[in-house]
Design a protein that fits this description.
46% of the residues lie in helices and 19% in strands. The N and C termini lie far apart (31 Å). α2 packs across α3 (69-81) and α4 (93-105) packs antiparallel against α5 (110-118). The protein has helices at 13-24, 47-56, 69-81, 93-105, 110-118, and strands at 4-10, 32-36, 61-66, 85-89. It has a single domain (4-118), classed as Phosphotransferase system, mannose-type IIA component (Rossmann fold, 3-Layer(aba) Sandwich). By secondary structure, it is α/β, with parallel strands linked by helices. Residues 3-124 form the PTS EIIA type-4 domain. One of its GO terms (cellular component) is membrane. InterPro entries: DhaM, DhaM_N, PTS_EIIA_man-typ, PTS_EIIA_man-typ_sf. It is an enzyme of class 2 (transferase).
C-alpha cells in the first residue's frame, strides 16, 4: 500500500478550515485536503468539489471524514469513480480526523488506525 492521507468534507468552510488547522498541529507530514461549503461560499457540499480535493491529495489511500449526510453521500459517489482507496469514517469529524492524523504522524499501521476509529463510530 502507498501513502495514506486525510480528506475533510464539511458543509461549512469554517468547520473544514478549523479541523484542518487543529490536526495540522499534530500531523505536519500527513497529506490533508479539504473542502467546506459551496462554490458560492454558501453552506453545503458538491460532488465536483469533493472530487477535486480527493484528486488533489497525493496519497493513494484516503481516510475521509465528513460532518453531515450529503457530505457522506458526495464522498461515496466520488469513491465509486476514484482510483484511490477512500475509507469513509462514520465518526465525529473533529475527534476522528484528529485521531487518524496523530496516529498517521506517529507511523501507525492502517489497521491500528481503523481499530481506533471504530471505537468512535456513530451508529445512528
Amino acid at each position: 500500500m502507498g501513502s495514506i492521507g486525510l480528506v475533510i468534507v464539511s458543509h461549512s468552510k469554517h468547520i473544514a478550515e478549523g479541523v484542518v488547522e487543529l490536526i495540522s498541529e499534530v500531523a505536519k507530514d500527513v497529506p490533508i485536503t479539504y473542502v467546506g461549503g459551496t462554490e458560492d461560499r454558501g453552506i453545503g457540499t458538491s460532488f465536483d468539489q469533493v472530487d477535486r480535493v480527493v484528486s488533489e491529495n497525493p496519497a493513494d489511500t484516503l481516510l475521509a471524514f465528513f460532518d453531515l449526510g450529503s457530505a457522506k453521500m458526495n464522498l461515496e459517489m466520488v469513491a465509486d469513480f476514484s482510483d484511490k482507496s477512500i475509507l469513509i469514517n462514520r465518526v465525529p469529524i473533529v475527534e476522528g480526523a484528529y485521531t487518524a492524523a496523530a496516529l498517521l504522524q506517529a507511523g501507525a499501521e492502517l489497521s491500528v488506525i481503523q481499530t481506533q476509529l471504530s471505537e468512535l463510530e456513530i451508529n445512528k
